[in-house]
Amino acid sequence: MPSRLWRLAAVIPLLALAACGGSDPTTTGAQAPDPNRTLKISAIPDQDPAKLATINGTMAAYLASTLGVKVEFVPVTDYAASVSLFRTGDLDMVFFGGLTGVQARTQTPGATLLAQRDIDDAFQSVFVANASSGIAPVSDVRQLSVLKGKRFTFGSESSTSGRLMPEYFLDQAGVTSGRDFSGQPGYSGSHDKTIDLVQAGTFDAGALNLQVWKTRKANGSVDLSKVVEVFVTPTYHDYHWIAGPRTDERFGAGFTTRLRDALLALDASNPEHAKLLELYGAKKLIATTPGNYAQIESIGRKLNLIT
Q: Which of 232, 255, 288 is the last residue of a domain?
């Protein structure tokens, strides 16, 4: 990253002061943030840890520069930890998946939706199979019945694109994960791992985030002679950023609004912004509302993943 500021993206914790280019709170009527407080951000661990550190470290650098606060990217061990640490106030802002975002808001009254990527307005999952499994590509949700009797893996148990929505589409094909696969389904823990397990033949098939699948194909880190694309699902809402209920209390009145504005201000015509957006697989960030995740909440409750 050519910018001196964004070379700091690999440093965790990442610190930057208002003098590095933070906006002047007096211009917005907001209270100046406490320079001794650190904004702790995180994300669900859905990809390779090193990749997540780069992506979210770069976001930390941008927020530090824009808002004039210290920012630290805090990696978490699993999806449940991201929800739990957000609930206890140990994380101020998290990039959640659709399901974990609903779980977080359910468990943390007063949490604020900030933004989503443009691609999350119409997100998709993909079913893939080992080339030697005998599973051929299909063109309709109902044809996912070809997965009956096969060894199958989801991603994390709390993944929207790697478990929740694939379960939903499998159900439309008359496939019940606890009954119709060969043995109980696996839970790989991440989208990258799902690809690797299917490629290795550990499972006949699996489901994952379409964005990760496209990235792996583009960078040549999946052997397409061993893994075939079976079906790309219909669209649904997914990933989004959420701020904790004490954000204004910790950083000053109006800070949550400034945080949202900073995300929405990312502009692909700005070369540095474009690099950050590219890391997230997006061209811009957009506003979102709780109603966008009503379908996910309904499915999550049916699967007893939201109580």
A: 232
- 105 domain residue, yes or no: yes
Element (H, E) at 125: strand 125-130
Residue 43: beta bridge partners?
95
Do 154 and 190 touch, CB atoms closer than 8 A? no
Residue-wise pLDDT for 217-272, tens only, equals 999 999 999 999 999 999 999 999 999 999 999 999 999 999 999 999 999 999 99
Question: Which ranges of 111-207 would DSSP assign to H, the alpha helix?
Answer: 165-172, 177-180, 191-200
Global pTM reads 0.84
CA atoms of 216 and 307, how far apart (whole Å): 35
Q: Do 150 and 133 share a domain, yes or no? A: yes
Domain membership of residue 28 as a residue range = 6-118+237-302
Residue numbers in the chain where pLDDT is lower than 70:
1-35
Q: Is residue 307 part of a domain?
A: no
Find all residues with CB under 8 Å of 214, minimum gap 6, and list them: none
Q: What is the CATH number of the domain that holds 222?
A: 3.40.190.10
